[in-house]
Design goal:
1487 residues, alpha+beta, 45 helices
Amino acid sequence: MEDEVFSGSTKSVDCDIGSHTCLAFRLSDKLKLLNQEEWYFETEDFGNILFPPSPNWFLSGAVDSREEDAILVTASFKNIVVYQLLQDVSLPKILRLVPYQEKVQLVSIYPDASHAVYGMTVGSCSDSGSVRLINMESGANVWRHSEHQGSLVTGLSWGIVGEEPVLVSVDEKSRMVVCQPRHQVAKVHKFPNVTEAACLETNPSDRSQALLAGGKMIHLVDLKDGNVLMQFQGHNSDIYCIKWFQGKGSPFSSDTQENDHPPVSQESKNGNESANDVKGPDSDNWRIKTQSSNMEGPFFASSDHGRQVFIWDLSAKRYVTEVSVPLSASYTKKFYGKEKTTGKQHISLSWYKSDLMSTTPKGELLMWKLWPGGGRYTVIHHLHMRAIYNLTVIGNIAVSCGQDRFLQGYHVVSSSHMFQYPILGACATSLAFCPHDVNRLAIGSQENIIRLINFEGKVPLQTQVVWQNIKGKIMSMSWHPEHEGKLLFGTASGQVGWVDISGRVTSCAYYHQKSVYKVEWAPLVCPEKTDLSDTWCAYSFGDREIVIRSSSNAMTDPVQLLPLLSEPANYKALKDVTEFSFSCDYKYFAVGANDGQVRVYSAADLKLCVSLHALRKAIQHILWQPPANSSSSYVVAVGSSESRVCIFDLSAHCERAPCEVEILTQATRELCGHESRVVWLAWSPHNPDVLASASYDHTVQLWNANTGQALVNYGGHTSRVFRVEFSPSDPDLMFSFGEENSLHSWRPSQLTSKTPGESLAKGKDRVKKTKEQAETGDQTYKDVAASNSVEKKSKPGVASISSEKPISGSTMVASTKRGIYKSFFPKLHSACSKKKSFFHLIVVNLLNSVKNNNEEAKAKGKEIEEELSDELEESSSNDQVELDTENIENVCKQFDFLLEKDTEMPEAEELLYALRLYGKPVEMDEILTAEISEHIKRGSSVQGDLMHCWRGSLNEHILSAARQKQLNPFLVSSAPQVSIKLWEFASEAYAEQLIEEGDFISAATYLVNINKVEEAIELLMKNRCFREAMAIAKCRRGYSEELVKKITLGWAASTIFEGAFDFAASLQISIGQIEEAAATMARRNDHGSLFVASLLYKHAEKKDFAKSIGLLSLKEACIKQDHDKIDRYLAFLPELEWFHIISCCHQNLVKLVKEVTSDEQPPTYCIVKSQVVNKGNTETEEESVIVSDAEEKYPFLQHLTVELINYGFKDESYPHLYETITSSLAAQQMPTSVKQLWFLVAIALCELLMSSTQELWELHLTEMLNYALSWGKVDQAYHLTRILLPRGLTDLSTVLKNFEYQEGSSKALSLLLHIYHVSELGLLHSELQCEEAWNVIQQNLVGEENVKPSENPGDISSCETENGSTSVYDSEKQENTVLKAVIKEAEKGEHFDCAIQADKEKLKRKLTDIKFLSLPGTTTELLSKLHSLCDFFMTDKDSHDVMKRVTEVLSNPKELLLQISLDLKEKGNLKDKDVQDLIFKISSLKS
């Protein structure tokens, strides 16, 4: 299959585009250039990092390098990126991208690559203050500490203390931590006189010392004891960068005066000089005249934010040269007029041999020729367009990166541009290939820029950056289908515009109020309604509205699309729109909503054609399938916040003129496998059946949308994946990006994982392996740490690293405050929170009360009903009948099956108490009274006082408190003492104070106290205190239905956002929104919630939705194997009575598989009848147990037929049932779990039994076997084939029904037989990997009298035993064999006591993990079994395609037979000739 999908991928890895080659090929070539012994980024199941994340800004230590092995390390967002530069390769190669859980601030690579322990170690620190040691080769976290206590680390460097390497770090509070990884200890030095430490650099000539820059001063400190050895002053601005001179001699030596650089240069001394000043060595500068003739060094350079650079002599304790860096040195970048110097200027430094290199604020790179007192600079390049923050030199290559998000490489000797590597400073948000130029890719990102990549440029990844006039993060992009080079974009600030190929931006005058999530070019829809004349228009989605804009005039007012849509009378307008998409021929467009609904409209008249209701959560992406030929395709893929992708074939629905809107409640096909929401989809332009999906589960999945098969899965991302796109020129090249700020390119043909589960499992294994490598990397660390554990505790100033976090005082205070105000309704909270499925019972009780009201309303007569129709509508939602415990008990008894297992039924009093929340004001008053009493019992009088205020009973309460001498400040302040105005002013002021402190409930109570009830309710609603707002609204404002409805709607929206869908549904029912409550409840995935949702839809007279959701609840209950609840559900869903067939089949399948895999019974796949009971009596069940051989046994299919008859489903009803099942369960999908596998098998098995033609029989048998193959596990395939053929070919007639079979005519039957044999062979091979199994077989203790001789070696029943089992020997004899073999081994002296005392069953479990497979009792039987299997594969020569397919999924029978035969030859105690004959026969098989 993969060869068909990714055709041509095995011939060449290159991606030829035009006359040049895409970077994907260059990246592949880069990996080939590596030596085999070198380490690099894993390529198996990983792609190439096309665009890596950018180093952090404003930090000179975000980049570090090591010249010895040309390693470059960058701190890039939440990653550490490791590059390697080669002198003969234009682009650097990414060796590894190490993911980080926090933002990485600084990195420091160990300077000695040959060090045995730390040669591959890099130090790093995060924005939380933690410092880590990372192994660059494995990505393992070697060690970490958090001694900076959350302070921001500003400097990091390696040093040496007592011949031990140490990692030194300093934070913004001038606290330096010297950690010794070998002993896992850290020592803290504090420097109170150092303000705002900015950077740290250890002395390369004496690594026990380090330079610490803080503010405008530099301090030389000793790492061991923390003493300040020297102080250097001279800077007038805060210091940004420090670099030690590591060359030979002095940077001012005479042998360095020769200048190899271009002659164009400028000289600088200190500040502004006149043109007539004498400069250079002949200057009269006093520093030159007074300098010592023999400067000893060492030397270092420092730069500050004022663009001053100083060269310091450590031996002289002063600076010897000062130069000023110009704002812009090149003529092409000089500004006219006065230079702007406001703000911090970042000057990066680095040394190249004896010359100093520096950057300018405008992005130039300078080379300085220095002399004491001054220097001359030469412009090396001006490749950057903006400020440069990091500069390092590796060999002859100067590497720089800055604000323009490019990693530039420049060869200093040859004066040539080596590379320009685009890097991502923020997460990419959109990818779009130009339809007119496949070599051009547009990338939008959160950096407010658009990158236009030209793969055919003169340099690799030639990039044009568009940033001017773009206001906000790029959220979406779309190329114009006809106008070449016109790119539409939308931003997070609401801006919509387009950019042409030259980079000119045209912005529309109208802005959305919030983010623009989707833009798309399309022809104008329904011109008579829009009043626009443009052929092509720009469509944008934001603010929950779709806007049409003119493409010819950006100033034209836009037209809103949603109000123009023609909705049928019984359809409500779409709310909370989340997505839209036009079909490929632009005749239709689809609109998705937050509730999972998708509606398809005609573009010509804006009429609704089809409504899709298969999804229940927010629609993320809608994508129409591109047509394979010239004909139009109306297949649409939909991704949502659910983990599945739905495929809808709308061809039959769109092409005919709709007289009535069609509702589709199930998809044509469901693609299941992702473990989180699916946010983006992409159809392959090369194969229309291939679909890619990007998910929050960190993976990209490729599907065959026609069959539902999962092709391959890419798991190279370390965070949520946002986009995926196919290369328009190469069918085996894809691009994707995720949250880790990197763009990946990868080839599906090189991936090994098939599903997200496999990729995630491999990721977990890699993490586990990485941790093991970190733990076992250097065992001496732990030994030394253990020996010094006492010393660490006794020494002052030495901190032992612990993972336990101390509890701060603020945390304790916050916890205490939360404890006081945890719940104002403790009794209600206690009733609702401790019972599972509590709100399911609440919903059905509310629904029952609504039904009773409706019945009473109808009984009043037609005349009264017409006069009071409006009032009755209101009363049906609010004025509910009085509930009593008897009614509640009856409803709960009727719906007791909604309770989960091991859950007790709530008391009727608890339910009645909770239902009062949705009742009249009198019932709310009763709740408040009960809650006040509960607070008094618990001793929380403050809360009781506040609730008295809500209830309006303060007068009595204050009088009572006065009599009992229990007044408090709140009660006293509540009584006006001086004047009413002063009291009102003080209460309102105190309320504002409480709001600032975060105590919104008390603040609202003070507002209520001064009769500002509406303001109090608004305050509570704004801060999501809806229960308190409801109490005040019902008790202090009379009964304003409008206000109560407003609070309830806000409360429901809040609970939906939090995921409490059941509670939200109960709120919606209380205000009469039955249909909305059903949609909300349906967003839960458990079958109980889905069943309740179907009841709500039925009450709302939405029969199609009720049937669809009810069927979904039955499917979920069946998959979860809760068969006892299915009959109870069907009692309320009579239209789905046919589901008894599926449930019966599935229940029997699951029961049989459990029986054969248990240890209690010998394995057999036949059904043993102990009694026959009419299934019409639901209180008794027919038992299917395994008993003695005397009882009658049936094949499973025959047993299932009898079961269906007992249910009342006879042969004459099969055609109608078949049509019902196939139409209701038409959505095709592949199993994602074992439970779902057997559910799908049950459906296919029922369809097979009811098939009326041999073609349908073939179809469903193949479908059933494909499920087992798609799962890819041998054991489940073995179970399925044994269930169909429990006694071999003798049961073939049961499978065939009444259809005629001729050898070789049925591919489905051939597939069945192949899976039958290959699965058995695979399990046998797996079992024989156990040495104990061979010990049993080679004992030769079992007689062969019960084994039937094989008349036909190719017959799969040739090894059948007397009792009808597929076993070749009796189970009891097997146990005896096991015992004898183990005891015999024990007598040799190994585990003798254990063998004597062991139980037989335990010994059997120890022998084998596959309980349902019976091993051959002797080597002779094993030899006969292998001959039988080999004969089958030799005789069946007409099924090469079938065999190839089975072999690819399960295992290669030839290889397995050969491996077992070789083991048999070595361990079997047989004649060599017998085994040689078998091996010769196997070798003649086709591979």
